[in-house]
Design a protein that fits this description.
Blueprint lengths: L1 E3 L16 H7 L4 H4 L3 E5 L4 E6 L13 H18 L7 E3 L14 E11 L3 E10 L2 H59 L4 H18 L2 H49 L19 H37 L1
Antiparallel strand pairs: 1-4, 1-6, 2-3, 3-5, 5-6
Helix pairs in contact: 4-6, 5-6
């Protein structure tokens, strides 16, 4: 947090002072900033970045980065950002700073990034994050990018699947409505006429009626005749409705299967990124081996060039002697 003695820029405004990283480095020469080797690396619209070496100037006796050095880097970034947010002729001083040290650093550089959290009339709040160059950070960043890519693709796929699911549900409801209307009419015909199966009942009634005519059973003939009349009057409708019901039932089953399949796909957590090789942390022990390979390759190339030059000069000398 930085104390400002004059009204600061409104929230969301950019820096009011245009200055480069080289000018910031020059401004902080012969100060604790230059003494710790802090270098400004980037100036944004309202963000600032700097780096600090992890060496004898910034470590504690245990050989790890001193917490005070980290706080100095953070204080420097916050104060400079507050100062750059003010009009010419005004200055800013630190009021309060809180720091959390997550992991020890023994070598390389640490990089600080400062961004605004709140810019008021008398105080400003800036957040500073300091990161090291540990390959684990790069590894986590790549893994996070892969994970975010999967989550984004999964969210887009689910949104599309939910839209397709709604369409499938609507189509299934329409098919069910058609089937229910036909089945309702068939139930009415079944109760009023006694028709159950047009093809089978037509054959059975015809054979039974002919037998009854020969047997002289008046009561049976009357019942058979009533059923035969019902077949004649409603049989065509009953048969057409039965075929239509079978067709609607097949359509409903097809829509229901499609709906269940989409519902199953919607609940799946799929991976959409194709990773050839997952990121691995580089082993520092291989660095000397790599340099030996490079040095050996360069030395071999230089030796080969030397041999070729010697052979060329010797050939020229032999040609001159022959003449």
């Amino acid at each position: 947090m930085t104390d400002v003695r004059t009204p600061a820029r409104p929230p969301g405004a950019r820096f009011k002072r245009a200055i480069t990283t080289a000018e910031l480095d020059h401004l902080h020469r012969d100060t604790v900033v230059s003494g710790l080797g802090i270098e400004f690396t980037h100036v944004g619209e309202d963000t600032l970045s700097a780096r600090m070496p992890v060496d004898r100037r910034t470590v504690q006796p245990a050989g790890i980065l001193h917490g005070g050095s980290s706080v100095t880097l953070a204080e420097t970034l916050g104060s400079v950002c507050a100062w750059m947010s003010l009009d010419e002729g005004w200055n800013a001083v630190g009021l309060d700073i809180n720091a959390n040290h997550i992991r020890a650093v023994r070598e390389g550089w640490v990089h600080g990034h400062c961004r605004p959290v709140h810019v008021g009339r008398s105080t400003q709040v800036w957040q500073i994050e300091i990161e090291d160059e540990d390959p684990r950070t790069a590894q986590r960043m790549v893994l996070d990018l892969l994970d975010q890519g999967d989550k984004l693709a999964r969210r887009l796929q689910r949104e599309k699947s939910e839209e397709v699911l709604r369409i499938a549900k609507r189509e299934m409801d329409i098919a069910r409505g058609k089937l229910d209307s036909v089945e309702a009419r068939l139930d009415t015909l079944r109760h009023s006429t006694g028709l159950l199966n047009y093809q089978a009942q037509t054959e059975e009634v015809t054979r039974g009626y002919m037998r009854m005519l020969g047997g002289g059973n008046a009561g049976g003939r009357s019942e058979a005749k009533d059923l035969l009349n019902a077949l004649g009057e409603f049989g065509g409708e009953f048969r057409a409705l039965t075929e239509l019901a079978n067709s609607y039932r097949a359509q409903f089953i097809e829509k229901q299967v499609a709906h269940e399949r989409i519902l199953t796909d919607l609940s799946k957590d799929l991976t959409y990124t194709n990773v050839v090789v997952y990121p691995e942390r580089a082993d520092k022990k291989v660095y000397p081996v790599r340099w030996l390979i490079v040095v050996g390759s360069v030395a071999s190339a230089c030796f080969l060039c030397l041999v070729l030059l010697v052979l060329r000069d010797r050939r020229k000398l032999l040609t001159t002697t022959d003449r």
